[in-house]
Recover the amino acids of this structure.
């Protein structure tokens, strides 16, 4: 009995030592095994691990994506219009050895503080660079700016053993004291742009009107030229017809010409003419023989 009573504490100590030498790393974390502050094991895969009881220490790190929100950051773009911006960053611990060496015992709090400083400096550097205006920051080009901030922040966060997964700019506001002045400047810029657009519109209208007037004159000139040509051709054709008609029957042609003269002279309801009765104008009215009898008398 004495022997059994002596062995039970020994077995208990051995069991406790065996249990304390085993640790578990799940899929959401990574772990380092430290011995007197020195790294002796790196566990990045989930599963069971072993350590020296009472000597080794297991330090666990998140393997999930973490988030960090920044305070309001005041930036001054190229157009000197100050903006207040807040952002958030998604990141993960990529190299736990580098992370441990960089932050030491400060842990997540120190890592978040260092990463916040990196993010703030890169936001100021990118948004305050040449060619980036407040309109650019508020336009669809904002996505390209956020990508630049992420790449630059990730390059500097590697020294902390961190990987920057994404950076997002959330609110972009004007400081209260600059709001009215900025608003008036924006209104003045829009009015200037509107004036320029109206001036360009008037200039374009004048060009269109001048072109239309020139085209109109060209069309009218061509139409008048064609009309004169057609009129000349018609006169020539008429004279040709008259000449042919005269050559076929000269007396009938004379008769026709006299009737046309009568019609033209006696137009209207109250036409009066004073002429000698024996005027040749009335040859075809005095006799049914007309000018033929006159010719006979003359012969």
């Amino acid at each position: 009995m004495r022997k059994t009573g002596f062995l039970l504490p020994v077995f208990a100590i051995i069991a406790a030592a065996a249990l304390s030498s085993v640790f578990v790393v799940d899929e959401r974390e990574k772990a380092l095994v430290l011995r007197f502050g020195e790294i002796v094991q790196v566990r990045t895969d989930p599963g069971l691990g072993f350590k020296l009881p009472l000597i080794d220490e297991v330090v666990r790190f998140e393997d999930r994506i973490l988030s960090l929100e920044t305070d309001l950051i005041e930036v001054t773009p190229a157009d000197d219009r100050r903006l207040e911006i807040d952002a958030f960053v998604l990141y993960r611990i990529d190299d736990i050895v580098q992370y441990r060496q960089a932050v030491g015992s400060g842990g997540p709090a120190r890592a978040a503080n260092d990463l916040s400083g990196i993010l703030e400096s890169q936001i100021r550097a990118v948004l305050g660079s040449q060619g980036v205006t407040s309109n650019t920051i508020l336009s669809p080009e904002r996505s390209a700016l956020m990508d630049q901030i992420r790449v630059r922040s990730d390059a500097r966060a590697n020294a902390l053993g961190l990987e920057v997964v994404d950076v997002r700019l959330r609110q972009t506001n004007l400081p209260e004291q600059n709001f009215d002045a900025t608003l008036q400047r924006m209104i003045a810029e829009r009015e200037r742009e509107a004036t320029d657009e109206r001036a360009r519109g008037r200039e374009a209208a004048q060009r269109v009107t001048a072109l239309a007037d020139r085209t109109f004159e060209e069309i009218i000139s061509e139409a008048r030229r064609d009309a004169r040509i057609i009129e000349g051709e018609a006169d020539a054709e008429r004279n040709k017809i008259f000449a042919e008609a005269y050559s076929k029957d000269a007396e009938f042609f004379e008769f026709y010409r006299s009737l046309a003269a009568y019609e033209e002279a006696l137009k209207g309801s109250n036409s009066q003419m004073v002429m000698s009765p024996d005027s040749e104008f009335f040859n075809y009215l005095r006799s049914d023989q007309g000018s033929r009898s006159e010719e006979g008398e003359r012969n």
Residues 176-248 form the longest helix (73 residues). The two ends are 190 Å apart (CA to CA). Strands lie at 22-25, 29-35, 38-43, 47-50, 56-62, 66-69, 73-75, 83-93, 162-173. The longest strand covers residues 162-173.
